[in-house]
């Protein structure tokens, strides 16, 4: 069992590092080939923090662990809001001023409800997975089109901060090198991570869904936590919050469908009856804390503390049910 824990930790470390290198190489290569910085910033860079979830969910589904893949996607969304945002707001209150984020937040709620609806019959089908992927393509296309057409896009803090994160003046050979390194290490690290997590789950009597909702979800949310902390330290509040909002949309529309497409199967009823409802409640809390129709809005330390407490209560509740 000690070996499984060591492999799990090393797997998480390799997964996060390789995801960062993959995004760095892909973003630099895209810019070198003439893709506008705005598009690279809002797609490749914004999607980067969800790369670990995508690899882990694909690996889990290939191993026949659809519940683990589902738990990873849903658990990551819950963790992003309750844990990551909670810790970030405790460090420093977040000012929300980006119209791009305010436009996307209702979409987070919409796709969360869609996920609950998919889970409600306790079966995740191939067609449902394809439908989510189509939704993801439409979302990306709409995001880019709206951002390009917006007259005040340069004044939107989230857009400008996302563009600032695009690597500049990176030689094409170097970009290709890191892209390949990321592409090779991502599936390898996710394979070992899922394998060790399954071993740990069996040892402690945890279900596939619970292991995805807890250990794996927290581990794959580490990039979001790092990005948010870095964002607030650089006074880039909208980019920090944008990492959470964007990641949650990507998790439902790009990560979750991998489970249904690769391994359509019956799923644990708790996904619909408990976890999807918690995800929706957390999303509503995020919207309530973030949106203001009278100008800017701050997510303060008290609200951050409440989110963190809610996360601890949720994790305790899950493990108490297992026990």
From TrEMBL:
Pfam families xref list: Na_Ca_ex (PF01699)
GO cellular component, one term: plasma membrane
GO molecular function, one term: calcium, potassium:sodium antiporter activity
Main location: membrane
Swiss-Prot/TrEMBL keywords: Membrane, Transmembrane, Transmembrane helix
GO BP annotation list: intracellular calcium ion homeostasis
Location of this chain's protein in the cell: Membrane
Keyword Transmembrane helix applies: yes
All copies of domain Sodium/calcium exchanger membrane region, residue ranges: 4-142, 175-316
Transmembrane segments: 28-48, 69-91, 126-148, 175-198, 210-233, 239-264, 276-293, 299-319
Topology versus the membrane: Multi-pass membrane protein
NCBIfam families: calcium/sodium antiporter
Protein known as: Sodium/calcium exchanger membrane region domain-containing protein
Organism: marine sediment metagenome
């Amino acid at each position: 069992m000690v070996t499984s824990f060591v492999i799990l930790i090393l797997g998480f470390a390799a997964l996060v590092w390789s995801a960062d290198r993959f995004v760095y190489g892909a973003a630099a290569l895209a810019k070198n080939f003439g893709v506008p910085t705005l598009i690279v910033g809002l797609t490749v860079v914004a999607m980067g923090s969800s790369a670990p979830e995508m690899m882990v969910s694909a690996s889990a589904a290939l191993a026949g662990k659809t519940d683990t893949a589902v738990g990873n996607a849903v658990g990551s969304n819950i963790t992003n809001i309750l844990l990551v945002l909670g810790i970030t707001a405790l460090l420093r209150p977040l000012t929300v001023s980006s119209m791009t984020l305010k436009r996307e937040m209702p979409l987070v709620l919409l796709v969360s409800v869609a996920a609950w609806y998919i889970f409600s019959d306790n079966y995740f089908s191939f067609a449902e997975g394809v439908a989510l992927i189509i939704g993801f393509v439409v979302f990306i296309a709409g995001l880019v089109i709206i951002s390009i057409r917006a007259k005040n896009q340069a004044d939107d803090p989230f857009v400008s901060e996302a563009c600032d994160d695009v690597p500049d003046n990176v030689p094409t050979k170097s970009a290709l090198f890191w892209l390949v390194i990321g592409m090779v290490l991502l599936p390898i690290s996710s394979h070992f991570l899922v394998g060790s997590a399954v071993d740990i789950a069996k040892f402690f009597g945890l279900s596939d869904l619970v292991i995805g909702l807890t250990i794996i979800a927290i581990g794959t949310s580490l990039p979001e936590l790092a990005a948010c902390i870095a964002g607030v330290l650089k006074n880039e509040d909208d980019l920090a919050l944008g990492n959470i909002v964007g990641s949650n949309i990507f998790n439902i529309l790009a990560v979750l469908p991998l489970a249904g497409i690769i391994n359509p199967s019956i799923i644990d009823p708790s996904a619909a009856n408990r976890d999807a409802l918690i995800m929706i409640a957390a999303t509503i809390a995020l919207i309530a804390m973030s949106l203001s129709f009278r100008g800017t809005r701050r997510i303060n330390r008290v609200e951050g503390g409440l989110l963190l407490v809610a996360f601890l209560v949720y994790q305790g509740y899950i493990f108490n049910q297992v026990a």
